[in-house]
Design a protein that fits this description.
Length: 715
């Protein structure tokens, strides 16, 4: 067997076979790895619908096939004693309805012989193109009979929503978006759209485009699509009028998460080029890409392409248009049955090669949110927006205070678009300038920071039909951006709850999660206090201050873990193994940028009393220098008495790095130490943390808030 794209250069060959994933389905795997092969389809046919497997000769039937692909066969043995220790290859035969395929060349995958009637696996080697067609023909018949399902498909996540206000909000948003739904009744399917939500009566008004609609008698099961979820409701009663069906607002709603990443139609002209990993004699395949996301795409293929779930093309070249190409590797996750036009739809999960990661992220981001763009060419317009919006006046600041950072900000904004691994600076432009902006950066190992949100005051631009479209588009672009990062676990932000929309969108959402007992969200009010590096307290401190020892780092990590929830500890890299932020510093440094952390400890008579966690970030990354921050933690009952000594040491540390000031993030109730430390009052935002697991739900929440503001489709 051979596979992949022909090696036109040594470099391309190195990319093609640069990982273990690229080798699977191209050359035979060791038995241990072959046992993990989940390609093909799971089978549950019986009698004439079953596919049987024989070894050695056609009549030596081993048992019924339970999973099958052109690379692996799993069999439920009919005899309890099957010797699978034989390592050589031998003839394998597959049979169904009087048709036999074989001999194929196969070898046993080692299984646990101590388990009675354990499935037996066989790896197929050297399957010819014709044999592959025959195997996939068997599977096509099984799919038509309903006795086969893709082995690689994952079950959707489902939860139940019973809060009446939440249900009303969801249906208001779905109605405004015009999303499609499906009614299922006794095997009949009616495709519908939620036309209106009658708020006064609690009635949902559905419309179908069927020429002769047949809703039938209730009850009905109705599925309808939200932002990135499929919702299911049960309607026990209903009333039809022509092409309309009226049902009551349900008391409960089932949500089925169908994608982690949102998918949208691909721009016209995007194609995928690849060779079949098993049968390169089919030549170079070039297929139209229909939709895509950060981690997947769907393409229109031909049945004779012989694609199946679990197949791993090691190199796919995507033609993006304008001569641009991106190299990805993928896994076939889904292949549809043959459609009326004779084609099949093929879904893949994909991962870009590191050399093309930035180009892939930029392309997908722009495709997902075409109304937004990155800010690198709009620095002056962005600065004007910050002035207009009052951003420079937050926390008692003045616009003049930010002028010294303008050059650093402009320089970083131009570079940020080339470093999507660390930044996403998004804007919503119109003919009159930038309407709004929102940025994300990655300051911690597993967390992205949302910051620098600003919106032009007054009426939206002329021609904009949806009042909430601007913020919704920006939130989708920036919150979806980290989903391309495999290390993404948390979102962190410091949000001003004085803004009613921010309070409802962020603070109330996290509080609702916390009230429900979720450990995936956290919010609390803090204070951002300013400390100037030259303003030493002048006090004589009875403490010695120096870098933390290994034992003191362990003590600090244990103390923080006792005082704060896990999401705080994990998102801010305050675990023992990540306190020094070494990998984060190295990553920022690899892009020529500053990121640093130091832990200082105040000791009295050799006993650690308190610790300061000092951080430094690239100038221009945040206009309020949010990455230049310090946190203080007491390690003893009266440890706060050592805070002034720690802050004086912090002033010297920042001054040595040419930082005239830094932020102290006060997360306790304050006290006498605040005045002793010479700190300046600042704003009191909410520290806001949510898990990446909540991002799809949070964006659903944002979609409901913003789409719901349209109001024209409910009455």
């Amino acid at each position: 067997m051979d596979g992949g794209i022909p090696a036109s250069s040594k470099f391309r060959h190195a990319i093609e076979f640069g990982s273990g994933d690229a080798l699977r389905n191209v050359i035979p795997l060791p038995p241990a790895e072959a046992a993990l092969d989940d390609s093909g389809y799971s089978l549950h046919g019986t009698g004439p619908a079953a596919i049987t497997c024989a070894v050695g000769r056609p009549d030596a039937v081993l048992g019924d096939v339970t999973r099958l692909s052109p690379t692996v066969v799993w069999v439920a043995p009919r005899q309890p004693l099957v010797d699978t220790t034989e390592s050589r290859t031998f003839p394998v035969y597959l049979a169904c309805n009087g048709t036999t395929i074989g001999p194929l060349n196969g070898a046993f995958i080692r299984t646990d012989m101590d388990v009675p009637n354990a499935p037996v696996g066989l790896q197929l080697v050297g399957v010819t193109l014709e044999q592959g067609r025959q195997i996939l023909g068997f599977l096509s018949d099984a799919l038509r009979q309903g006795v086969a399902v893709p082995a690689a498909s994952a079950l959707p996540v489902q939860d139940t929503i019973v809060d009446p206000e939440r249900i009303r909000s969801i249906f208001t948003a779905i109605c405004a978006a015009g999303n499609k739904g499906v009614l299922r009744r006794q095997g009949r399917v009616v495709r519908m759209v939620l036309e209106r939500f009658h708020a006064a009566t609690g009635q949902l008004e559905w419309r179908t485009e069927d020429a002769t609609p047949d809703f039938g008698e209730p009850s009905y099961d109705i599925d309808v699509i939200g932002y990135n979820s499929a919702y299911r409701l049960r309607a026990e009663a209903g009333r039809s009028e022509g092409d309309r069906l009226f049902t009551a607002l349900p008391a409960q709603l089932f949500r089925i998460r169908h994608r982690w990443h949102r998918r949208v139609p691909a721009p016209e002209g995007v194609h995928a080029r690849f060779h079949h990993p098993l049968w390169r004699e089919q030549g170079l395949l070039r297929r139209e890409v229909l939709d895509l996301s950060f981690s997947g795409l769907c393409m229109r293929c031909q049945p004779q392409d012989l694609l199946f779930p679990g197949l791993l093309p090691p190199l796919i070249e995507l033609e993006l248009g304008d001569g641009q190409r991106v190299s990805v590797r993928g896994e076939i996750r889904y292949v549809s049955s043959v459609r009326q036009d004779g084609t099949v739809l093929c879904g893949l999960s994909v991962l870009p090669y590191s050399s093309d990661e930035a180009r892939w992220v930029r392309f997908v981001s722009q495709t997902l949110s075409p109304a937004t763009r990155t800010s690198e060419g709009l620095v002056d317009e962005l600065w004007d927006l910050f002035n207009r919006s009052g951003f420079f006046s937050l926390g008692g600041s003045t616009p003049a205070e930010f002028e010294e950072l303008k050059q650093n900000f402009a320089s970083l904004a131009k570079r940020a678009a080339e470093v999507p691994q660390l930044f996403c600076n998004a804007v919503w432009p119109s003919e009159r300038g930038i309407e709004a902006t929102l940025s994300f950066t990655k300051p911690y190992r597993h967390a992205w920071l949302g910051h620098q949100v600003a919106k032009r005051p007054g009426k939206p631009p002329e021609g904009l039909k949806e009042a909430g479209a601007i913020m919704r588009d920006l939130y989708l672009r920036t919150f979806e951006h980290p989903q391309s990062d495999p290390d993404f676990h948390w979102v962190v932000a410091y949000v001003e709850a004085l803004n009613p929309w921010i309070n409802k969108a962020h603070v109330k959402y996290a509080q609702r999660q916390m009230e429900a007992g979720s450990s995936l969200a956290f919010t609390r009010k803090i204070q951002k206090m300013k400390a100037f590096s030259h303003e030493l307290t002048g006090r004589v401190h009875p403490y010695s201050v120096g870098p933390a020892t290994a034992g003191e780092l362990s003590l600090l990590a244990a103390t923080v873990a006792q005082q704060f929830p896990e999401c705080y500890v994990q998102s801010l890299d305050l675990t023992r193994d990540r306190l020094d932020m070494g990998p984060v510093t190295a990553k920022w440094k690899s892009f020529g940028m500053e990121r640093e952390r130091t832990v200082l400890v105040a000791r009295r008579d050799g006993v650690p009393c308190a610790a300061a966690v000092l951080e430094l970030g690239q100038l221009g990354a945040n206009l309020f220098r949010l990455l230049d921050n310090t946190r203080l933690f007491s390690l003893l009952g009266d440890g706060t008495r050592a805070y002034s000594a720690l802050l004086d040491a912090a002033r010297r540390w920042y001054a040595a790095r040419n930082r005239p000031s830094f932020l102290y993030l006060r997360e306790d109730e304050g006290g006498d130490y605040v005045q002793e430390c010479g700190l300046h009052d600042g704003p009191d935002p909410y520290l806001w943390i949510i898990s990446s697991k909540l991002v799809p739900d949070f964006l659903e929440h944002i979609s409901e808030l913003t789409i719901g503001r349209r109001g024209a489709h409910s009455r």
